[in-house]
Amino acid sequence: VSVQFCCSNTMNVAMLRARGLEGYCYTTWEATARQLRVLRVRKVLQSVNVLLATRGNSTMAIASSSDSFVNLDDVTKNLGPRFRFISIHELIDQATIPASGVNPTAPTRRGLNFTAQELSEIDAKADELAAHAEECTLEKRFIVNSLRGYAMVKKLLEHMECSAFSAPCPEMCATTRLNKEQFTFCFTHSLLNEEGIPSAC
Prior knowledge:
Largest sheet: 4 strands, parallel
Radius of gyration: 22 Å
Distance between the termini: 36 Å
Order of helices and strands: EHEHEHEHHHEHHHE
Strand order of the largest sheet: 4-3-5-6
Number of strands: 6
Mean pLDDT: 84
Helix content: 40-55%
Oligomer: single chain
Structural class: alpha/beta
Number of helices: 9
């Protein structure tokens, strides 16, 4: 980035770009600072792996967002983020402990299902959140249920080396799985965002 005045600004940018380098030139420090923020965001985007929970077609979430990207390959090409996918059913199966000990959507694969210690930690976190809330009208079991979704997403983010998360919540609701398990990803998004991890429907 070059900050110049008068005619040297176009000359320096032309010289850099002729050599295949990026060049930007501004006549004020404010414009320079704004461009540096843009470049920093671009750098972050180029290093992001996004974990996408999917139902069927991974590139379109019709009920969740009508303005979602049509082609994720174009997103990677133009902005840099890469995407890794997991079926919503596989995600939810791993957030529970089936009586059989086997996840029905991936019966031959070892899942990331919770251990007894992790469930104990989830229970303790529910108490902590309720105790520090300004107001809490939820029964503890509902907090625990939603924390299971949050904790599983955290495990999957680490396991799949991702730093952001998105879920098609209305598509999930349409399967009745969330209703059965009684958790919401709104809670997951809120907790992850507080930790500096981008997360949204």
